[in-house]
Design a protein that fits this description.
It contains eleven helices and no strands. The protein is mainly alpha-helical. It has one domain: MetI-like fold, CATH 1.10.3720.
């Protein structure tokens, strides 16, 4: 297993290795950030607001005199893990529905496909804004909303893959043996869809990061006293002229996370996705 991982890493182009390094970096920051943060995210560490970078405060302070570095390390956890959880939930849900639709066919396929088309027709940001405004913002609600928004996209991809695989001989043999829907889905079809589905989950992750950051920038995402990367940009926007690091650094964090994930996805060889 380890040999396969190193072999795959050697085949990655330079852009893919850069993307992998950025993704691993932000995963480590999200996991270990609260442990290595020099201060509590809500602690007032300086009487001056938007103070500059110094030896004690590497990224300066925000609009309330709190340590920007500490809040960045804590905020990365919500951005990364919420986006990762929503992407995984969207892929699991969309793929499960796609397998049922492709294998059973008929009216089940028609109902599921038209339902997904209906969800796709609703603009994602408007859908999220309406639900957040109606039910309030919470971490669980944000997770569910973002997962639901990106289920249709995964459903279409997974269904197309499953429909192509159903016509192959090994699936027909399994049906001739009298195997049920669950066996055919999970033992015959799904293992042959793993690579493209993993690439799709990476794309969903990027989309969720951008959507979550946009919602937080509008004040409808992660709510105080918690903060994610988008919240850090929004709450310090008034100090752009005097405390630029409090705004620019979280924005760079969002950019490096999404660009790194995109570079890694793009570097995957087409042959590895089949």
């Amino acid at each position: 297993m380890t040999g396969r991982i190193f072999a795959a890493l050697r085949t990655l182009p330079a852009s893919g290795r850069i993307g992998l390094a950025l993704v691993i970096l932000w995963l480590l920051i999200a996991a270990l950030g609260p442990v290595i943060a020099p201060h509590s995210p809500g602690a007032f560490v300086d009487e001056s607001v938007f103070s500059g970078m110094s030896r004690e405060l590497w990224l300066g302070t925000d609009y309330l005199g709190r340590d920007v570095l500490s809040r960045l390390l804590w905020g990365a956890r919500y951005t990364v893990f919420l986006a990762l959880g929503a992407a995984m939930l969207a892929v699991v849900t969309g793929t499960s529905l796609a397998l049922v639709a492709a294998i059973r066919g008929g009216w089940i396929d028609e109902v599921l496909s038209r339902s997904m088309d209906t969800l796709t027709s609703i603009p994602s940001k408007i859908f999220a804004l309406v639900l957040v405004a109606a039910f309030g913002s919470s971490l669980v609600l944000l997770l569910v909303i973002m997962a639901v928004i990106y289920v249709p996209g995964n459903f279409r991809i997974a269904r197309a893959l499953a429909v192509n695989l159903i016509s192959l001989d090994f699936v027909q043999v399994a049906r001739a043996r009298g195997e049920g829907t669950a066996y055919i889905a999970w033992r015959e079809i799904l293992p042959n869809m793993i690579h493209p589905l993993m690439a799709d989950m990476g794309l969903r992750f990027v989309f969720v990061v951008l959507l979550l950051s946009g919602l937080s920038f509008l004040g409808l995402g992660v709510q105080p006293p918690l903060a994610d990367l988008g919240s850090l940009v929004r709450e310090n926007i008034s100090g752009l002229s005097e405390g630029a690091s409090a705004i620019i650094v979280p924005a760079i964090a969002i950019a490096t996370l999404t660009v790194g994930a995109n570079l890694l996805i793009d570097a995957l060889k087409p042959g590895a996705r089949s």
